[in-house]
UniProtKB/TrEMBL annotation, chains A, B:
It catalyses: acetoacetyl-CoA + acetyl-CoA + H2O = (3S)-3-hydroxy-3-methylglutaryl-CoA + CoA + H(+). The active site is at residues 95, 129, 262. CoA binds at residues 267, 271. This is Hydroxymethylglutaryl-CoA synthase. CDD domains: init_cond_enzymes. Pathway: Metabolic intermediate biosynthesis; (R)-mevalonate biosynthesis; (R)-mevalonate from acetyl-CoA: step 2/3. One of its GO terms (molecular function) is hydroxymethylglutaryl-CoA synthase activity. Keywords: Acyltransferase, Lipid biosynthesis, Lipid metabolism, Steroid biosynthesis, Steroid metabolism, Sterol biosynthesis, Sterol metabolism, Transferase. Catalyzes the condensation of acetyl-CoA with acetoacetyl-CoA to form HMG-CoA. Its EC number is 2.3.3.10. Belongs to the thiolase-like superfamily. HMG-CoA synthase family.
Amino acid sequence: MHSESMNCNGHEKTLSSGIIGIEVYFPQTVVSLKELEKFDGVSQGKYTIGLGQDNMSFCGDREDVISIAMTVLDSLVSKYGISYGDIGRLEVGTETIIDKSKSVKTALMQLFESCGNTEVEGLDTTNACYGGTQALFNTLYWLESPYWNGKYGVVVMADIAVYAPGPARPTGGCGAVALLLGKGKEVKLIPEVQLRATHMENTYDFFKPNLSSEYPTVDGAKTISCYLRALDTCYSRFIHRAEGLTKQDNFSLQDIDYIVFHAPFHKMVQKSFARLLFNDFKRDPENTFFKDVQQFGNISMEASYSDKDLEKAFVTLSKALYEEKCAPGTFLAKNIGNSYTASLYGNLACLINEKGNDLMNKRIVLFSYGSGLASSMFSLKVIQSVQPIAQKLDMRTRLSSRIWMNPEDFTKTLQLREQRYGQMDYSPSNSIDSLLPGTFYLEQVNSIGCRKYNRK
Amino acid sequence: MHSESMNCNGHEKTLSSGIIGIEVYFPQTVVSLKELEKFDGVSQGKYTIGLGQDNMSFCGDREDVISIAMTVLDSLVSKYGISYGDIGRLEVGTETIIDKSKSVKTALMQLFESCGNTEVEGLDTTNACYGGTQALFNTLYWLESPYWNGKYGVVVMADIAVYAPGPARPTGGCGAVALLLGKGKEVKLIPEVQLRATHMENTYDFFKPNLSSEYPTVDGAKTISCYLRALDTCYSRFIHRAEGLTKQDNFSLQDIDYIVFHAPFHKMVQKSFARLLFNDFKRDPENTFFKDVQQFGNISMEASYSDKDLEKAFVTLSKALYEEKCAPGTFLAKNIGNSYTASLYGNLACLINEKGNDLMNKRIVLFSYGSGLASSMFSLKVIQSVQPIAQKLDMRTRLSSRIWMNPEDFTKTLQLREQRYGQMDYSPSNSIDSLLPGTFYLEQVNSIGCRKYNRK
């Protein structure tokens, strides 16, 4: 039995709602971080080794959060052979806000027009990179509730991450993910209902109070410690529930087959994986696996966040486990950068792309983090072959066929985005040549800010 | 039986999740629209008769969307004698965006600190005035799903509606509502699960593309026709389902005991009620109730939206029904103005405040509209006395004890808000004298935009 809960009569009930399909979109234009290091005049390896990133996706003034959300949604619908009439709920997670009132979701309703389906619940859900996770949870509740209308639920995560010139700029990126959710025989990944832990608090580690700029306000060191503290809290709650569920008292990373993280930059994922092992060590210090890190036995949790020796020791100790359980889900984010709400689910797609049938009956744990802050750790069990999803994703081919831009053009493109932000009454000036056939793009923004799209 | 759905075994199941309590907050400062008419030099009655509004709530630079959300949430928790530790989910509906990434929900987490409860799901949900309705639906799904953790769900709707000087300014307002949701014996209002209809489409009738201003972009005529078209569509779907549920073929307004609308301004509520009667007429033209409006039998739906004679005839015909079914839920909005996401639920609170025990076993239908656009019509059945809610609301006393400001001071206050919008590194200059004890207020915005609050 993959997942249980009690129903109204106190009997065990098998959950039947989960993920049927996943589609990923990233722009065709990409810049190499190695080249950007040279261009920015920073030390070699600062971005590629320091951040652990290889390349970064970006887009010009032809694509915005609405167009990339339309592209990924339409691609999902087409690849999975469903109709817009089959969708009963569509929720969007994003922090790329271009209107304070009108949701991206309502803009997506233009795709439903031709089939006349206007009864599609769901809006936009916002808190930094976590919005998509809450949207996913809400959709699962809907599917499992008596309010479900028998149709599919779709969750779209879409973000364009751009930063002011400076040290944060290479942590940008762009991507969109669409999840197809439903019930019954089609479901391939199903949540383990008891294996979910959440932690939320009021922080100002990364936020966007400057409404007239596309750039966030970032306290890099604070956001890293917030991320790790949230990870600790969620893992501790997750472990507690996992031990209750599995009736064992030493649940650890070993009981998790694969783990995917929200990835602001790749180095953070390595740190996070090592941090989980540090948590396991604190709970089971006598375990021989930890014989080489005994010197960290008495460190306080507070001090542990900034102890570089500790971090290094656990990154080293976790290497083999990391390669096995985490690395397969990281190459997308390393190659497109941070895609905010889409990041975690892009990494899940990446894991599926890489491992395919090997994931059968495996437990995949996801850690979602959104600054401000909201975080959850939860588990998905693979109950049916995900090979059909992997085939449709075809990620490596798509990544390798992108168009390489040089750092000068990347910088000019970001300057153009800066100029366009909040602008009205214009037609975008970037060519649509670089867009793949089928991509939606911005055609015009009129004098009061209404946006018109077209499709290549 | 108040509400049914099928459970997993195909047997009828009674829903047990619904509304336990409601709290409303509005600022202490208020301006008379009669006085504003004189001050603005417009014809007498333009705001009071033309819009049907009496007074408008507003706030200075001491209150923002976070502070009013904190005030209403804390007041709900205190009046209903619950602890922050008892809340498992908190979702915010708002379109008063002061940060594009950090949610209002995470700011509310500061109230949970003292009891150490950080496991509180839910974020902000956005699409104009509809955000609170989706937040409510999401919370009901959670309560009815196997993911429910046994705790209360709370939905907070909070908005400050301000407009640029001109014809839209008198349609402003300010208010916040908190709904306490749960399961079982405490529930007083319960949804009728089958009686819900939704309509969403891509429109630009009212939106906020100018991110550096607090003011929206409004196409007044378009938003009225969008509202009425959405109302028609939802009502038609609602009727279809109601006829299925009640096994009758002539379900109409007569089968609805009370109805509350999202109220951008009071005249719109009267128009909307009359519009439902027009829909009933189109479905049952031979009914003798409609003998005086037979001349509108052949009008097209398209033409009907702008036909003033039709509107007048149906407003007249609906007068008695309106007084009985709709008027009791309208005096709050007439006295505080448009509170966007809070409007519909403030009107529900108002109906409860006015009718108390008379609502026992009655069907209340709600129509929610958010520009852009999202809309739903759904039904709540009163299954237990709502008199305790009415007593806690004590709305008339609270409304009558407000502080009357003159139009000059109102205008100066809005100028101050304009100046503050997006500003950083300041302490608000308005006195806190006018705030009631217990009200949260903004203490400081630092140089990077972090907000600090205090409590009177």
